[in-house]
Every structure is written in structure tokens, then in C-alpha cells.
Amino acid sequence: MPYHVSIVPQNSVQSPPNFKQHVTEQSRLSDRMSRRLTRTYQLYSRTSGKHVQVLANKRVNANGDDGAVHAKLEVETDSFGSRVRIKGVKTGYYICMNKRGKLIGKPSKDVQKGYCIFTEIVLENNYTALQNAKYEGWFMAFTRKGRPRKASKTKQHQREAHFMKRLPRGHLLSERRPFDALPLPVPVQPFKPLQDVLGETWPCTFPHLWIYSVTFVFGAGLHVSNPLVITDRRKGFCY
Length: 239
Description:
Elements: H1 19-27, E1 38-45, E2 51-54, E3 60-64, E4 73-77, E5 83-88, E6 94-97, E7 103-106, E8 118-122, E9 128-132, E10 163-166, H2 171-175, H3 194-197, E11 209-217, E12 223-232, E13 237-238
Antiparallel strand pairs: 1-4, 1-10, 2-3, 4-5, 5-8, 6-7, 8-9, 11-12, 12-13
């Protein structure tokens, strides 16, 4: 007796997309299409008690005083992740890391390489660690004397790799702009007689005046409800 085997097709179950993996892969690529966000601040070293600075001889250390010209850094975003490029405003050199783990200043032509890109990692103690994008696990770090530490011997939890973002001295006073109040256009409608607004008249102390309640909307988003508005029935508009 022959047997018949029937095969019932089953719908293949597809796993949901791994969004975390997509973000990780895209963060490793430089974003050349979006507009870059630029910020200017100082990097305070937790160990040296000074600020990171880029000197004219392309050397990088953490011996800059607060407000020093070489300690003013310009930080540019490189992707939609936390990857940034750090440049000394005075010299124009970017902070880079060579294959030996040494920090050195480089001109703008080398910034597209991973040596000059760092990933910002915000720690639980509110400090920031800067990991090199080319060499994972290598961090920007300085000794107590402000000298760069070899990146291959650095870890994220070490004090030498902890920094705090600070504005340069006098930054707020010199670059503060006066507050400008922009007037918002508010459509002004002519007042209607009381008969058109409420459909009835409310007698007032004066025989020719009526008092009714309306709501005003100001340009700054302030609502004042139910003020008393006086209308003159002889003129047909409010005072």
C-alpha cells in the first residue's frame, strides 16, 4: 500500500533587526554628509590638575593653565555616535595617537584617519574618558606631571584617563550676547459691538457703557483670562 507524504509549507520566522549592532557599525564610520557640531572648551586632567594643550611643536601635554591660549580646544563631531576630533584653536593641530600609543599633534589633512578620532565615554563619576577610534582599548591619559602616558597601558577606570570639560576663563563674559526679545506678530482683530460678541447687553453704572469678559493672548505665550473690558455702545468699540 503506497504512502503519501504531504509537506505543509511553513512561514519562515525572521528575527527582528539588531538596532544596537546597526548603531555600533554606523558609529565607526565618519559622517561626511551631516553638518558637524563644533564646541569650544578645555579638558581638565584629573591627575595633573591642569588642562590639555596642543603646542606649536606638535606636542600634547596636560600642563595648561586655566584660560591659556594653547589649552583652548575645538571639538568637532565625527558621526552620530560619540566620536569627536579635538583640535587646538591656537595651533590648528589635531590630537592624534600613533601606532605606539603616543599622543601627537597633526595637521588637518590627517584627521580623516582613525588616529585622530576619539570616542567620548561618560563615566559614572561624571568624568569623561577618550578612547581612540583606531585602537580600541587605548585611552588618552596623562601622568601627574602632565606627560602623555603610553596608551597601551591605559584603562578606562584609571584616573589618568579621566577628564572634565570646562569653559575657558572669561569665556562667558567675553562671548555673552545681550538678550534680544523678538516681537512675535499677533493678529489684531477689530473689536465688535457687545451685541455681536455676547448677543446681549449687560447694564453698567453708566447708561452708555457695557462690561463683558474676554480672554487676551499675548505674543510671549501668556494668557490672561477674563479681564474686564469696557465697550461704548455709542462708538461700538472698546477702550
